[in-house]
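sorry for the late reply, my laptop died twice this morning and i had to redo everyting from scratch. anyway the thing you sent over, i finally got around to it. pasting the sequence first so we're on the same page, its 141 residues, then the predicted structure underneath. double check i copied it right bc i was rushing
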Amino acid sequence: MKDTGQTLPFGILLLRLLVGGLFIAHLYRKFAITGFETWWDGLSQAGYPWWVLAYTVSGEIAGAVLITIGIHARLASLYAAPLMVGATVHWFNRKGFFFTDAGYELPLVWTILLLAQALLGDGACSGSSLIRRMQNAAADR
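ok and here's the structure:
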Protein backbone atom coordinates (compact mmCIF):
# COMPACT_ATOMS: atom_id res chain seq x y z
CA MET A 1 0.00 0.00 0.00
CA LYS A 2 1.42 3.35 -1.04
CA ASP A 3 1.65 5.91 1.77
CA THR A 4 0.69 9.33 0.47
CA GLY A 5 0.83 11.02 3.88
CA GLN A 6 -2.92 11.65 3.85
CA THR A 7 -3.41 10.08 7.27
CA LEU A 8 -0.47 11.83 8.96
CA PRO A 9 -2.53 14.86 10.09
CA PHE A 10 -5.02 12.53 11.76
CA GLY A 11 -2.24 10.57 13.46
CA ILE A 12 -0.79 13.79 14.85
CA LEU A 13 -4.27 14.86 15.97
CA LEU A 14 -4.79 11.51 17.72
CA LEU A 15 -1.43 11.84 19.48
CA ARG A 16 -2.22 15.41 20.57
CA LEU A 17 -5.63 14.38 21.92
CA LEU A 18 -4.13 11.42 23.80
CA VAL A 19 -1.30 13.38 25.42
CA GLY A 20 -3.45 16.45 26.10
CA GLY A 21 -6.21 14.24 27.50
CA LEU A 22 -3.77 12.63 29.93
CA PHE A 23 -2.75 16.07 31.17
CA ILE A 24 -6.41 17.07 31.50
CA ALA A 25 -7.09 13.92 33.54
CA HIS A 26 -4.17 14.65 35.87
CA LEU A 27 -5.27 18.25 36.38
CA TYR A 28 -8.83 17.13 37.03
CA ARG A 29 -7.63 14.69 39.68
CA LYS A 30 -5.36 17.32 41.21
CA PHE A 31 -8.04 20.02 41.45
CA ALA A 32 -11.38 18.18 41.63
CA ILE A 33 -10.62 14.90 43.39
CA THR A 34 -7.50 15.20 45.54
CA GLY A 35 -7.69 18.93 46.04
CA PHE A 36 -4.90 21.26 45.06
CA GLU A 37 -3.93 22.17 48.62
CA THR A 38 -3.81 18.51 49.66
CA TRP A 39 -1.64 17.67 46.65
CA TRP A 40 0.70 20.63 47.22
CA ASP A 41 0.99 20.06 50.98
CA GLY A 42 1.64 16.35 50.55
CA LEU A 43 4.49 16.85 48.13
CA SER A 44 5.88 19.77 50.13
CA GLN A 45 5.97 17.58 53.23
CA ALA A 46 7.69 14.87 51.18
CA GLY A 47 10.51 17.34 50.57
CA TYR A 48 9.81 18.70 47.11
CA PRO A 49 10.69 22.40 46.70
CA TRP A 50 7.92 24.82 45.69
CA TRP A 51 9.41 25.40 42.23
CA VAL A 52 9.14 21.70 41.34
CA LEU A 53 5.46 21.76 42.24
CA ALA A 54 4.89 25.00 40.32
CA TYR A 55 6.69 23.58 37.27
CA THR A 56 4.60 20.41 37.52
CA VAL A 57 1.34 22.34 37.45
CA SER A 58 2.50 24.72 34.69
CA GLY A 59 3.70 21.77 32.57
CA GLU A 60 0.37 20.02 33.02
CA ILE A 61 -1.55 23.18 32.11
CA ALA A 62 0.63 23.75 29.03
CA GLY A 63 0.06 20.16 27.99
CA ALA A 64 -3.67 20.23 28.65
CA VAL A 65 -4.27 23.47 26.76
CA LEU A 66 -1.59 23.95 24.12
CA ILE A 67 -1.00 20.35 23.08
CA THR A 68 -4.71 19.50 22.99
CA ILE A 69 -5.71 22.42 20.75
CA GLY A 70 -2.50 22.30 18.73
CA ILE A 71 -0.99 25.72 19.33
CA HIS A 72 2.76 25.54 19.97
CA ALA A 73 2.40 21.82 20.72
CA ARG A 74 6.09 21.33 19.93
CA LEU A 75 7.18 23.86 22.56
CA ALA A 76 4.63 22.67 25.12
CA SER A 77 5.82 19.08 24.63
CA LEU A 78 9.43 20.08 25.12
CA TYR A 79 8.45 22.09 28.19
CA ALA A 80 6.58 19.15 29.76
CA ALA A 81 9.07 16.41 28.80
CA PRO A 82 11.47 17.04 31.73
CA LEU A 83 8.49 16.66 34.04
CA MET A 84 7.96 13.14 32.75
CA VAL A 85 11.69 12.37 32.75
CA GLY A 86 11.65 13.27 36.44
CA ALA A 87 8.67 10.99 37.05
CA THR A 88 10.43 8.20 35.14
CA VAL A 89 13.57 8.52 37.27
CA HIS A 90 11.48 8.76 40.45
CA TRP A 91 9.68 5.47 39.80
CA PHE A 92 12.78 3.78 38.33
CA ASN A 93 14.60 4.32 41.61
CA ARG A 94 11.71 3.03 43.71
CA LYS A 95 9.73 0.33 41.96
CA GLY A 96 11.45 -0.94 38.80
CA PHE A 97 9.99 -1.13 35.30
CA PHE A 98 6.49 -2.57 35.29
CA PHE A 99 3.47 -0.28 35.56
CA THR A 100 1.55 -2.98 37.43
CA ASP A 101 4.17 -2.68 40.20
CA ALA A 102 3.99 1.16 40.16
CA GLY A 103 7.16 1.21 38.06
CA TYR A 104 8.49 3.63 35.47
CA GLU A 105 6.89 2.02 32.41
CA LEU A 106 4.05 4.56 32.01
CA PRO A 107 6.13 7.72 32.65
CA LEU A 108 8.69 6.42 30.14
CA VAL A 109 6.00 5.89 27.50
CA TRP A 110 4.57 9.34 28.26
CA THR A 111 8.05 10.87 27.84
CA ILE A 112 8.44 9.21 24.45
CA LEU A 113 4.96 10.40 23.39
CA LEU A 114 5.92 13.97 24.32
CA LEU A 115 9.17 13.71 22.34
CA ALA A 116 7.26 12.31 19.35
CA GLN A 117 4.81 15.22 19.60
CA ALA A 118 7.72 17.65 19.72
CA LEU A 119 9.12 16.12 16.53
CA LEU A 120 5.75 16.16 14.74
CA GLY A 121 4.59 19.63 15.80
CA ASP A 122 1.03 20.90 15.70
CA GLY A 123 -0.09 19.10 12.55
CA ALA A 124 -2.65 20.13 9.96
CA CYS A 125 -5.69 19.49 12.20
CA SER A 126 -4.68 22.08 14.78
CA GLY A 127 -5.49 25.45 16.22
CA SER A 128 -2.35 26.96 14.70
CA SER A 129 -3.32 25.64 11.27
CA LEU A 130 -6.79 27.17 11.66
CA ILE A 131 -5.30 30.51 12.69
CA ARG A 132 -2.97 30.47 9.65
CA ARG A 133 -5.87 29.73 7.30
CA MET A 134 -7.90 32.57 8.81
CA GLN A 135 -4.94 34.97 8.47
CA ASN A 136 -4.39 33.93 4.86
CA ALA A 137 -8.07 34.38 4.06
CA ALA A 138 -8.03 37.85 5.62
CA ALA A 139 -4.90 38.77 3.67
CA ASP A 140 -6.52 37.64 0.40
CA ARG A 141 -9.43 40.05 0.86
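The two ends are 41 Å apart (CA to CA).
thats about all i looked at so far, will dig more tmrw
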